[in-house]
Design goal:
Radius of gyration: 15 Å
Number of helices: 4
Mean pLDDT: 90
Structural class: alpha+beta
Helix content: 25-40%
Number of strands: 8
Shape: globular
Length: 170
């Protein structure tokens, strides 16, 4: 893929329910493999995996979370369609917001694009409020700044200091 027309994409991966015989973490790892197989998407880096409590608190099982740094030539909505296809193939069923799920792929940002459509808001509107996004994001893109506010990760991480998160056990 030519560097000239590619965009930096940050994708959050999360799961807290098993799918078929796969644990939530194995599903997340399968999602990374699926991303590597998408045309027009090049995976550059994968964060370590984290375990976090559900947000908002709900009594659901803990989540496994990570972030993938990629390059793409896809337009934002085409990328969203591709990610939703991966979610569906790995058992995602859309029900109520914040429901437990087998897989969640969220576009955190695409370069510095700011977009607000019915289907997609960029940067992701709640990413900067969630430790389960910011910690793995720091692993793969420590220099990232929120396109909406210009705040860097060091500042944003201070704002989520009380949220339950830890590196996942191997």
């Amino acid at each position: 893929m030519s560097e000239m027309n590619t965009r930096l994409v940050l994708i959050a991966i999360g799961a807290n329910l098993p799918h078929l015989r796969l644990s939530a973490r194995q599903t997340c790892e399968q999602a990374v493999q699926a991303l590597k197989n998408l045309p027009q998407l090049e995976v550059e880096a994968v964060s370590r995996w984290y375990e976090s409590a559900p947000v908002p608190p709900s009594g659901q099982p803990p989540y496994v979370n990570g972030v993938v740094r990629c390059r793409t030539t896809l337009e934002p909505l085409a990328l969203l369609d591709a990610l939703q296809g991966v979610e569906t193939r790995l058992g995602r069923v859309r029900s109520v917001p914040n429901a437990a799920r087998t897989l969640d792929l969220d576009i955190i940002s695409i370069d510095n694009i700011q977009l607000n459509t019915e289907r997609l808001i960029l940067p992701h509107p709640r990413a900067t409020q969630r430790a389960f996004v910011l910690y793995p994001l720091h692993d793969v893109a420590p220099e990232w700044k929120d396109p909406a506010t210009g705040k860097g990760l060091d500042t944003l991480l201070k704002g989520v200091a009380g949220q339950e998160i830890q590196p996942a056990k191997e």
